[in-house]
Amino acid sequence: MSRDSAKPEEVDEDRYQRALQFLYDRINYEKLVDGASRFPFRLKRIADLIDRLGLSHFLDPTCVTSVSGAIGSAVPVTPPGRVTERVIDSIPLIHIAGTKGKGSTATMVSAALTAAGIRTGTYTSPHLHSLEERFRVDGKPCSARELIELVECVREAAEQMANESVGSPTFFELTTAISLLHFHRSDCQVVVIEVGLGGRLDCTNVCRPTVSVITSIGLDHQHVLGDTKEAIAAEKAGIIKDGVPVISGVTESGPAEVIERISREHSAPLYQLGRDFAVTDERCDDWGSIVNFDGRDCFEDLNQAQLSLEGTHQARNASLAIAVLQTFQRQTSIEVPQDAIRTAMMRLRCDGRLDRYRLPREVTVIVDAAHNEDSVTALCQAVQRRQYKKPIAFVFGTSVDKSAEPMLRLIGDLANSITLTQFSGNPRFCPVESLQKRMPDGYSGELFIQPDAMQACRTALDKVPDAGTLIVCGSFFLAAEVRGYFESLQISPKR
What we know:
The protein has 16 helices and 17 strands. It has helices spanning 13-24, 43-52, 61-66, 102-115, 144-162, 171-185, 222-225, 229-236, 253-265, 312-332, 338-347, 373-386, 404-412, 432-437, 453-463, 476-489; strands at residues 93-97, 120-123, 135-137, 140-141, 190-194, 211-214, 246-248, 270-272, 278-283, 289-294, 302-307, 355-359, 363-367, 392-396, 417-422, 446-452, 469-473. Strand 9 and strand 10 form a beta hairpin. The longest helix has 21 residues, at 312-332. The chain is globular, with a radius of gyration of 22 Å.
């Protein structure tokens, strides 16, 4: 189990650790292993928890109907030091699903809203270094002190539920409720929420969105979501609500047709990348892109926007964010000027996505949290786009529930050497022995086995010649484990 270390001073360490332990003890890894397709998602339970916390203004009315007997039946738990005496208006909410790109898109949307002077709460997962990263207000993670108070409040409601038929909430249900409670207490004007897994049965799907977003469809979590892209599209399109506009980055015909059909069934206006808006990008000399957004008949153009994030896939995510923001304006009359969008794109940081470190001997290191076939494809395309000099070395480790073979095939096409490793901060790691068996036939480069991730990076770096490139990828957990090491070695800012 990971232990989070980023805490401000004068925080009661025992209370902090107890708060973390309460949450981590409720992680259910059952849904992440083979044969777990019948994992018991409980939308009724998360809706009940949110209602008990006095946060029913976030709930979708259809959810309220579907969990009759839970909503309104419990005595709300008043957050410590707070009094809930006023009638609370619904807060505009942007709900983002997708196989890849949803975290980056959420960060872009939130940054633009903040740049426009709109107090914005953002809930994403997983975190890299501390749990507090999941709950951000105007880009700033909640403090450890705030987390303690939030957990203690949610714990009271959870312990009530444990003695009732609905049962005790799980880790992700609790963190979802914590995010909404934090945003409510922080007087957020807009909330941006990233789906955890899938969409239809994800616990974030009890919320009522102002705009729904589906960034992409790929093969991931097949044992839970289905074996085809069409089946996965149907699960992710489960976030679509009656009459709520949908922004989709899905262009492949089969999954796109599924999303279009479900949008029609819900009378939800659908705006699709490639049909209703488009994007082109130019590579900046050093890093990042110049993005040109073509709004066609539905949106306002935005040209020559400088994006600090590297890769054509991030320019694509930026186009989704721009379409989301313009749709949001039409839905709410909350203005997000183009200057705010430009400022946000230019200053954006998204840790764990193509983090670049310039080391002595002109060695370049890239650490990326890519953990499925689509995200590794995007990583490899970005590396090829920059035309990094060979030899290129990879350090790769992933989770046991991921399809390692296609990822290894992709990096094998670029790599002169691959070091297989495993992260240590989470029990979901795939053992190196299993990874070795999944190496594709025909790989002609060098192969090394090193179970210790830090040692794997040190050894691989020692073998990289002058002006060479080292890439670390395969998991958020691996990226989190090694980023600090490369940060300590760099000789110039990474961005």
